[in-house]
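Recall that a protein's primary structure is simply its ordered list of amino acids. Everything else, from secondary elements to tertiary packing, is in principle encoded there. The following example makes that idea concrete.
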Amino acid sequence: MLFANQVIALIETLDTSRKHYRLYEQLEVAATSIPLNIAEVQGQESKKEMIRFLYISRGSLYETLTLLEIFAMRKWINIERFKFFETQSNEIARMINGLITSFKQKMT
């Protein structure tokens, strides 16, 4: 949730033309989808469904990072800011992958 909150805070500080508002909205949706899908895992009874929501969460993480990279390419954010989010994304991906592996092991 901290990562999603940091992305939302970033969006609020951007000083660019709002003609790209759909990209801002997509970034916000992708970033918030990460913890929301992890939360959804808690409501599932089968390990298979839990894993499915973790894959969705990981996909949203990669979508968020891709959008942030586009923002860096457009110079809407600087490379240092992008690298900060990239580092955090890599750590979150490792955690999600660990959860997926754990649930898969419990299925066998």
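The chain has a mean pLDDT of 94. Residues 79-107 form the longest helix (29 residues).
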